[in-house]
């Protein structure tokens, strides 16, 4: 699945205009918050925020900038999940999930060095990913995907526990985000 398909599925999942009273992010369209739309120069009503602007934002800020495209060249299903997680929780959070999983799975640094959990997919993260995938063919990507999804699920539970208003979203987060890395079946 390429980034255009991932974006199309994400926008379909996020839906059109939403202004849920319990959502701290306020009004959204295509999953883009008003604050993010304003940051990128949009000044109109959120009900009118263009789908094309959302698609461009998702490609630039949540795929290319965090280097999930480089992950996709190695592990496309994992990259799809990182993209979806990044949109929902922030790209740095998604990258930290990957770095934590790779570090925890490196057998005490015997396979490759521990990573700095800095939320940036750089050369060290990509080298560790390459090494992990080479050592764990053919199932390594699936294991990393499960680890990322486990951390994502735990974070959703924590968000609901810390802020009861988030309970309004917990079921949807778990049903529509986990295992949904861009519509992977």
Q: What structural class do you assign from the helix and strand content?
A: mainly alpha
Biggest sheet statistics: 3 strands, antiparallel
Q: Over the alpha carbons, how many angstroms does the gyration radius reach?
A: 17 Å
Give the count of helical stretches: 9
Strand content: under 5%
Task: Measure the end-to-end span.
Answer: 12 Å
Fraction of residues in helix: 55-70%
Q: Which sequence of strands runs across the widest sheet?
A: 1-2-3
If you had to describe this structure to a student in words, what would you say it looks like?
The protein has 185 residues and is mostly helical. Helices cover 60% and strands 3% of the residues. It contains nine helices and three strands, in the order H-E-E-E-H-H-H-H-H-H-H-H. The chain has helices spanning 3-14, 34-39, 51-64, 68-72, 76-89, 91-104, 123-135, 140-162, 167-176, and strands at residues 17-18, 28-29, 32-33. Helix 6 (91-104) crosses helix 8. The protein is globular and about 55 Å long. The N and C termini lie close together (12 Å).
Features:
185 residues; mainly alpha; 3-stranded antiparallel sheet
